[in-house]
Every structure is written in structure tokens, then in C-alpha cells.
Fold Permease.
Amino acid sequence: MWETALREGLNTILTYLDPLHLLLGIMPAFLISGAIAALLDKESILRFFGPGANKWIAISVASVAGAILAVCSCSILPMFTSMYKIGAGIGPATSFLYSGPAINTAAIFISAAMLGTIGWARSLSAVILAFGVGLIMDFLFGKARVRETTQDMTENPPKASIPWKGLLVIFVLVAIYMVGPNLYKGILMVAAFGIGYLLFTKEQRLNWYRESWSLFKLIFPILIVGVFVASALKVFVPASVIVKLFGAESFISNILSSVISAILYFSTLTEVPITRSLIEMGMSSGSAIAFLLAGPALSLPSMILINRIMGLKRGMTYIILVILFSALAGSVYELIF
């Protein structure tokens, strides 16, 4: 069994380290995060998403922001890290962290196509949960976040200017996740570098590359270790055991489903066919909803990094909220349907 687990973990890492996946799947995420830190005006970000911004508007926008991305939790983490690093409010930052991998456009339609009502319920629940998680995080830690990041905002209020140059580069990089063929992805990657070259000074571009590389060194090694461990765990938690535990329509089953899916690692959209198979084997609809909501939002590597970025208290609060809300959404679905 240990040999099988080792083989499973190594095979997943080899797949994860596929050159095309690294170049067109992972690299753009770090370039986006580096651009957020280096090419966007900090004062403008604080104006729209900072602790002093209107939390209802900021959290609402962040909770649906994931709809334009087709990325998993490993790709959304560097973007979240940059937002948090330059002073974004904890409410919109955590809403964005949840919504990114949970409600991307591809996930919405593929879930609906393969899972029917459960797929649509997953997408609607993800938007509501992203907003709820952000609102609660803001309520619990918003004031402390204001003290950390905006002590001088009264004397130096954020400017109203829109950093369109940086946003243009980020938009082109985000578009990589919205197109299908690798050729188009490659063209967009080249275009992003070209636009950066034309619109920014050499020092600004170097700062962009430094920020991206710094985040890569911080996050990627931990992701690799976490992906290996999470993949190896699948050998010790076979699907038949999961079905026995999660076949009943109960909140306890939904909580267990949330916890298991939060520990395991899912590449983008792989949770959909896995959930379909589990449903066919007897998993309850509520546990399926919980599995779909917690899995893409969390993973063993992402939980390690979230705690490292936000601190143990805030990180664990976010993780617990995602797990509890996912289970609750599953129970609500069972009551309605």
C-alpha cells in the first residue's frame, strides 16, 4: 500500500510538473500576482478593496470575481497573497480566495452538464458562501486589518486614479484562463510581456518579475509537497469507504464530506467527474454538494499556505467557515430537494 501511495503521489507530481501546465497554467497565476504587487498603484487598490472601502460593495464584487477565472486553489493562492500583501481588506480578499476556484465559468457549466440540479446548486451556493465567508471574516478581523494596513490613510487618503496600465496587463494574463487552445494561451502570454515592455519602465518590469519570482519561491515548493501528500492519501481513503461514511443524508455526513474533500487535492474541474462517480456509488446529494464546495476551495497545500499568509487564527477561522458552510449548504439542498 505504501508503494502504491508513493507511486500515486509521484505520478500526480509528474502530471503537475508538465511543462505546458507550468507555462500556461501556473506561470500566469504568479505573473498576475506579481503584477498586482508591482504594477498596480497601492492607493488605488486600497480605495476599492482596502479595509476602508465599502465592505458590501467590495465583498460583493470579490465573491463573483472567480466567475471569470478557470483556476484551482493552487493558482488563486498567489493572487490572493498579492492582494493581502499590499493591503486588501480581509473580507474581499477571503471572498476572492474562495470564489476563484469555486465558481469559475467552466465549473458552472460542466457541473450543470454532468450533475444536473446538483451542479446548478453548487454554483449558486458558492456565490452565497463566498459573500458570507468574506462578511464574517470582515466582522471578526476587519478592524484589526484596518489598524495593520491603513494607519496613515487619514493623513494620506487613497487616490482615485485607475491604474489602467497594470490592469491591462492583468486582463491579458487573466484571459489566458478563459481561452481553450494552448496556441491562444501562448499568444496571450507573449502579448502580456509585450504590453509590459511598451507601457512600463525597465525598473517597473524588473520589479514585476522579482515579485512574481518571490511569490513562486514562497508558494510553489509547499504546493508540490502538499500535492504529493494529498494524492498519496487517496490510496489510504478508498472511494468505497467514503461512500459508506457519506451515504446518509445527515449534517454529520456532510461535515465529514467537507473535511475529506478539503484535505484532498483537486486539479481544476476534476472534482466534478469524481463527485459524479461517488454519487453513482451511493453518496448522498447533500454530501456531494459539500464535497463540491469544500474541495476546490481548500486543499492540504492551500490550508498550509493560508495559515502562513494570514496567521493561524485567521487562517483556521477561514478554513472552518468554508467547511461548515459547505456542509450547511448540503443540508439545505437535502431539505429543499
Q: What stands out?
A: The two ends are 40 Å apart (CA to CA). Residues 308 and 315 are 8 Å apart (CA to CA). The chain is about 80% helix and 0% strand. The chain has a mean pLDDT of 82.
